[in-house]
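Incident log, entry 3
Record: DMT family transporter (273 residues)
Problem: checksum mismatch between cached and fresh output.
Input:
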Amino acid sequence: MSSSTGSLFLKWMIPVAIVWGLSYPLTKLVSEYASPMIISVVRVSIGFIFFYILGRGLSVGIKQFINGLLNFVGLLTFLNLGVYFSSNPGLVAIMIYTQPLFILVIELILGTKIKMKGIIGIIIGVIGITASAFISFNLGLLFGLIGGIIWALGTVYYRRNLLKEDLVKLNAFMALVSIPILLAITPIDFSFAFNLTGIGLLITLGLIAQVGGFFFWFNAVKYLGSVKASTGSLLVPVTAYILSYVFFKTIPTFLEIIGSAITLIGVYLTMTS
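Fresh output:
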């Protein structure tokens, strides 16, 4: 890694690891006061307000709309459902961060040449995912895995179609078009405790995960590329595990750790191929 790449990594990926790692235990806390769909609505609403004010406008278009469906509606829905239905947010983070594996698969389908090291990484990653799911399968892990696939699609789509867009205005538009769609599905397991603690946690989560997280993430993809940014994102499950322990004292079982480690090794191989 060159010095310039290293500085860009520190500038964009370390904040991603911190804020998104924190978002998993925070989401679990918030889920005690609000259902997953409510959490998604509040996150994108806060994101829209912040980015619209900052960018003083919107980046509007069909491609921007599709990007919002993938990166906001799809990812957030399955991420929040995953955390809601799982006892360990850190393990859901592992499933979400299989995203680099699926990025490589998608690029392969689209005709991008993949080295043998990358193919081996995919195989190892699939083994790790299967092991983790088999050991302690639940809806949370399934939803997390679906979220990882959708996020991979969104990352490749952004990289190929919207790289030159104003990131702030793009985020504002994606959030805006996501709000009515997410509102339409809030009746699914609707629950909301109207109190200061719940509202405070929701706002905090929105500022940290939606505003901070996506701002740093899209800049990382822009300046480092989807492959290197995805490699750096492997730090997020690590911080999610650590912070989940700090918040809930939840420790994954030995077999869950082995399955997750195999998955991350596979992801690392694909991203360094």
